[in-house]
Write a structure and sequence with these properties.
This protein starts with a helix and ends in a 7-residue tail after the last helix. It has about 400 residues and is mostly helical. The longest helix is centred in the middle third of the chain and has 29 residues. It has one domain.
Length: about 400
């Protein structure tokens, strides 16, 4: 256990800053790491020159880029629990909770549509689905379920969604197909998207944030609520026990996250033999794999938060975690409005003179992410927390 004065000061500063808004340092850092990765993945210097791990899998498979969105939904689920507890303590009713969740989901969906159509006119061809739209829908459903259902019932809902989704895609072929499979053309999820959203999709054949695949995405978020419950209990135990009791609470939380993470990762890999790991379809095996890995990364954040070096290194990510969605929206708007051609020129003309094309593209992406980290630091220093 660390007892240095500098560690105590860092811990006290983090506790003071977070307690006023009911935050948990490890969760903010986890969310900040995720939004940093999202900015890097979405803003390469040159889309034609990107390292393979920073590209989304063409169809089945999983890369580092494919982990970003499910990690964020996992953090959304954990945050739902924190908000739920705060509102329960204030005596909010179910009606008020649902109203709050509906308004927030509506704002996210509206911003997602604006983001899709802002620089891609005509509007009658705007993409309907998107990252913010999916977050809004998933958040609303998760919030409603969390209010009414204990952990065991949420687990049952997750099982129903994941097994049901698997059976839908494995058993029921889309009209016009002789049998069901998980290819681009012959799966029920892509068929429904083509029927309902034709002309308003990411690709003519499928949309990675499509309609039916939102069901397993809800499962990703619900699994995050379970981690949120563990974090809340951990914080309560630390506050009540202190000293050696706090160390015991730390070990208990880490064991839970590590065990859950390893088991779900293994389950996802095994399930992937019969239900391929696929982000575009958000397959059930993909949910297990990415949730397991998210739990392991969250465990690492919790472990780092108990150490002086971890608190120092995690500070920029803590800043970003406090304003994750606003940073995502701002980074997307700025990149589309001003930087599309500039990034290509800098990475392929200036940086390519001393780096490989992929290296120059990555340096631009990292510099862009660092810029938004500085913006997040300014917002944090002024206690400006924007909830989209």
């Amino acid at each position: 256990m660390l007892t240095s004065t500098s560690h105590k000061l860092l811990t006290d500063q983090a506790s003071t800053a977070n307690s006023a808004v009911g935050r948990i340092w490890a969760l903010d850092v986890f969310r900040g790491l995720t939004i940093t990765a999202m900015i890097v993945v979405n803003n390469p210097g040159s889309p034609a020159a990107v390292f393979g791990c920073l590209r989304h899998a063409v169809w089945s498979g999983c890369t580092l880029a494919d982990l970003v969105f499910p990690f964020f939904l996992f953090s959304v689920g954990a945050s739902v629990v924190l908000s739920f507890r705060q509102r329960c303590d204030r005596g909010d009713s179910l009606r008020r909770w649902i109203l709050h969740a509906t308004v927030r989901a509506g704002i996210l969906i509206l911003l997602g549509l604006i983001l899709n159509g802002l620089f891609y006119l005509p509007w009658n061809q705007v993409r309907w689905a998107g990252v913010l739209q999916r977050i809004g829908v998933v958040y609303l459903v998760t919030a409603c379920i969390t209010w009414r259902a204990a952990i065991r019932w949420r687990t049952a809902v997750v099982a129903f969604l994941l097994v049901g989704y698997w059976l839908l895609l494995a058993v029921f072929p889309p009209p016009g197909s002789a049998s069901a499979d998980f290819s681009t053309h012959a799966n029920l999820a892509s068929y429904l998207d083509r029927r309902i959203m034709a002309g308003h999709m990411w690709q003519p054949e499928f949309d990675p944030e499509g309609l039916l695949s939102t069901l397993p995405a809800i499962a990703s978020c619900l699994l995050g609520t379970i981690a949120g419950e563990w974090l809340m209990n951990w914080r309560k135990e630390k506050a009540e026990q202190g000293g050696t009791g706090a160390n015991k609470a730390n070990r208990h939380l880490l064991r839970r996250l590590l065990a859950a993470g390893l088991m779900m990762t293994a389950a996802g890999l095994i399930w992937g033999w019969v239900f391929p790991i696929n982000k575009s379809l958000w397959t059930s095996s993909f949910v297990f794999l990415t949730t397991g890995l998210a739990a392991l990364v969250l465990a690492a954040c919790c472990w780092a938060g108990e150490r002086e070096t971890g608190l120092k290194l995690g500070r920029p990510f803590q800043w970003q975690g406090c304003n994750a969605l606003s940073l995502y929206f701002g980074s997307e708007v700025l990149a589309m409005a001003l930087l599309t051609e500039a990034s290509e020129w800098v990475s392929q003309t200036l940086l390519a003179t001393w780096l490989t094309p992929a290296g120059g593209s990555l340096v631009w992406a990292l510099a862009y992410a660092a810029f938004w980290a500085m913006i997040a630091g300014i917002m944090y220093s002024r206690r400006l927390f924007v909830k989209l």
